[in-house]
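Hello,

Our lab assistant flagged a job as stuck in the queue for most of the afternoon. It eventually completed. Since we weren't sure the result was trustworthy after the delay, we are filing this so someone can double-check. Below is the sequence as submitted and the structure that was eventually returned. Let us know if re-running is recommended.
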Amino acid sequence: MTEATKEKLRNLATSAATRAGWIAALLVAFVIGLMLAAGDPPPKKTKTATRAAAHAGHDHKTGADPKAADETPTEYTCSMHPQVRSPEPGKCPICGMDLVPVQQVKAAKTAGLDPAKVITLTPRARILARIRTFKVRSRETVAGERRLLGRIDYDETRIKTVTAWTAGRIDRLLVATTGQKVRRYQAIAYIYSPEIYAAQSDLIQAAKQVQRLAGATPLAQSAAKAALRSARQRLRLLGVPGGVIKRMERAKQPQRNVAIHTPFGGTVLKRLVDEGNYVRAGTGLYRISDLSRLWVQLDAYESDLPYLKTG
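-- returned structure --
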């Protein structure tokens, strides 16, 4: 290889190294430019700018710093036990309820509401819950047809109970099954009552005494008639009808069994005694109802209430 050829090779190597250096320098400059474009460093604040910013955020009336107030941690309390206070949310150590911010409790009490029944949602929670509010309007006239499930029932104002006026033994039932219709003052059972038996004996003796003293002095006749009236009144108080008392008065011997008459008519809903039962005064014997008028019991739900009214 000649000297001229060697010289050319050295020149080519020098020029290649120079170009490589320039290319590297350009790449470094490009990278630095990208870094500067991505984020410029904030300008340094001077002492004057710092004092102005602090003066602008200061409350001249109260002397409080709003930023410092916002950074104050929220205090939490229990709606049922306000004495419980905590700097962090959690559970009430007394009842286990979730602790709520103190501001929420104060706002609820200011509005006249029960804090335990107030639910507060954050703006994000309101969006997720899709809460919508509408203005409440009242409609005076609502027309429509509703189909309701109902059942026929007895008129409670027409249900009555036939009771025994005196103690005794039920010897015979003249109405033994439910569903039978009875008339007013109809005999429905026979009862043996020692009290009625004794009252009959007194009535018969008083009637005989009046007959014996028909020709006696007026004072004696008046006393006998008073005794007769007293015997009649005693039987009336024991539930014996007036027609039956007249028959007893004409009889020679007292009757062993006396009929029980119902004071009202209707249909027998339930028989409460059996033959042979011993009953006391006031014991229920039959439950009777007048079925000429019935009730219709309808099941209406909350959605049906606007369509219903009395009458």
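-- support follow-up --
The delay was a queue issue, not a problem with the job. The result is valid. The two ends are 130 Å apart (CA to CA). The first strand starts at residue 76 and ends at 77.
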